Amino acid sequence: MNKAKKENLINITEFQSDLVQWFQEEQRDLPWRKDKNPYKVWVSEVMLQQTRVDTVIPYYNRFLEKFPTIEAFADADEEAILKIWEGLGYYSRVRNLHSAVKEVVSEYNGIVPDTKEEISKLKGVGPYTAGAVLSIAYGKPIPAVDGNVMRVLSRILLITDDIAKSSSRKVFESAVERLMYHDNPSYFNQALMELGALICTPTSPSCLLCPVREHCQAFENGVQEELPVKTRKKKTRHEDILAVVLKNEEGKILINKRPEEGLLANLWEFPNLKIVPLLDPWETLQDFLSTEYLLDASIEQHSFTEVRHVFTHLTWTIDAYEGRLKSGEVDEYGSLRFVTEEELEELAFPVSHQKIWRAYKEQKR
DNA sequence: GAGACGTGGGT
DNA sequence: TACCCAAGTCT
């Protein structure tokens, strides 16, 4: 059955009003729903990418307290923007947002562009975020297709395209365009997502509470649990890592700034390396410090903690050692820096290295 | 187009 | 334990 035929099976006008009326009555009271300021909407949408609402709320509130206006954020330095994002993950989001905001301030007089064409040129603004900002902040009838929308529409319209494939997004965007409630695109897009979050959940959807169940082809056929079709990704690889918390005679701690591209870009970390198979860890670490960093350190024989950390595509097991070193003339050398404990806690570290730091302090007391 | 890119929570 | 998920984007 083709798409046009399938959509003839639902009454679009009734679907729109049932959905939007439900949203008006049942929507959650979320901080970013108090204000349609395009900058604030934009910040919330970037934070919500691949991230749960409950996780985002405190970050969103802190972010706008620190950077209340688009100009305030444009003026921030990178250390500050990473620190406020610390623990949220996908750190390129905040670096792209910062770059994009600076462009809006310099090229658009601080006004977030209101066309798909222009807003999509900004870093970190893909098809979803463009549609979300344009519809929520500017009331434009542009689709905002995220995972919720694909799940909801796959069920309502019995769409069986594999949502794990990037090519499927356009199928759902076309569907949203045909279903769009032009009287209130903001509510329509948000209602689709809210329905996915509250009712039309990935497992055990609450069909009996669903405001649009009479329009749902999956419910009609009892196949809501079989949709959406989504192929699974292959499993993650693993890395064993040696890390060291090194203190000099002044009590300052050696940290390293990660490269500006790739995993955890520009975040700080304790010096570390991948374990070399078959070699003694302690000797490997000692050798690494002397040959790579030209540091003469004495390392404890046994690690003080083992940290396991799981990423989406990778897992780390980090054995962390403690050590001391003599020379402390310079505070900076390349990507290395000696900092006090207070300074360290003002810098942005990935969660894996925060775990090392917490274990270190715990072991000290 | 497949893989990189984080983290915390749920089953 | 071992997945899978959560308001995606970039390369």
TrEMBL record:
<keyword id="KW-0408">Iron</keyword>
<dbReference type="InterPro" id="IPR003265">
    <property type="entry name" value="HhH-GPD_domain"/>
</dbReference>
<dbReference type="InterPro" id="IPR029119">
    <property type="entry name" value="MutY_C"/>
</dbReference>
<dbReference type="GO" id="GO:0000701">
    <property type="term" value="F:purine-specific mismatch base pair DNA N-glycosylase activity"/>
</dbReference>
<keyword id="KW-0326">Glycosidase</keyword>
<keyword id="KW-0479">Metal-binding</keyword>
<keyword id="KW-0411">Iron-sulfur</keyword>
<dbReference type="InterPro" id="IPR000086">
    <property type="entry name" value="NUDIX_hydrolase_dom"/>
</dbReference>
<keyword id="KW-0378">Hydrolase</keyword>
<dbReference type="GO" id="GO:0035485">
    <property type="term" value="F:adenine/guanine mispair binding"/>
</dbReference>
<dbReference type="Pfam" id="PF14815">
    <property type="entry name" value="NUDIX_4"/>
</dbReference>
<keyword id="KW-0238">DNA-binding</keyword>
<dbReference type="InterPro" id="IPR044298">
    <property type="entry name" value="MIG/MutY"/>
</dbReference>
<dbReference type="GO" id="GO:0006298">
    <property type="term" value="P:mismatch repair"/>
</dbReference>
<comment type="function">
    <text>Adenine glycosylase active on G-A mispairs.</text>
</comment>
<dbReference type="InterPro" id="IPR005760">
    <property type="entry name" value="A/G_AdeGlyc_MutY"/>
</dbReference>
<comment type="similarity">
    <text>Belongs to the Nth/MutY family.</text>
</comment>
<dbReference type="GO" id="GO:0034039">
    <property type="term" value="F:8-oxo-7,8-dihydroguanine DNA N-glycosylase activity"/>
</dbReference>
<dbReference type="InterPro" id="IPR015797">
    <property type="entry name" value="NUDIX_hydrolase-like_dom_sf"/>
</dbReference>
<keyword id="KW-0227">DNA damage</keyword>
<dbReference type="InterPro" id="IPR023170">
    <property type="entry name" value="HhH_base_excis_C"/>
</dbReference>
<comment type="function">
    <text>Base excision repair (BER) glycosylase that initiates repair of A:oxoG to C:G by removing the inappropriately paired adenine base from the DNA backbone, generating an abasic site product. 8-oxoguanine (oxoG) is a genotoxic DNA lesion resulting from oxidation of guanine; this residue is misread by replicative DNA polymerases, that insert adenine instead of cytosine opposite the oxidized damaged base. Shows a powerful dicrimination of A versus C, since it does not cleave cytosine in oxoG:C pairs.</text>
</comment>
<dbReference type="Pfam" id="PF00633">
    <property type="entry name" value="HHH"/>
</dbReference>
<dbReference type="Pfam" id="PF00730">
    <property type="entry name" value="HhH-GPD"/>
</dbReference>
<dbReference type="GO" id="GO:0051539">
    <property type="term" value="F:4 iron, 4 sulfur cluster binding"/>
</dbReference>
<dbReference type="GO" id="GO:0006284">
    <property type="term" value="P:base-excision repair"/>
</dbReference>
<protein>
    <recommendedName>
        <fullName>Adenine DNA glycosylase</fullName>
        <ecNumber>3.2.2.31</ecNumber>
    </recommendedName>
</protein>
<keyword id="KW-0004">4Fe-4S</keyword>
<dbReference type="GO" id="GO:0046872">
    <property type="term" value="F:metal ion binding"/>
</dbReference>
<feature type="domain" description="Nudix hydrolase">
    <location>
        <begin position="236"/>
        <end position="364"/>
    </location>
</feature>
<keyword id="KW-0234">DNA repair</keyword>
<dbReference type="GO" id="GO:0032357">
    <property type="term" value="F:oxidized purine DNA binding"/>
</dbReference>
<dbReference type="InterPro" id="IPR011257">
    <property type="entry name" value="DNA_glycosylase"/>
</dbReference>
<dbReference type="InterPro" id="IPR000445">
    <property type="entry name" value="HhH_motif"/>
</dbReference>
<dbReference type="InterPro" id="IPR003651">
    <property type="entry name" value="Endonuclease3_FeS-loop_motif"/>
</dbReference>
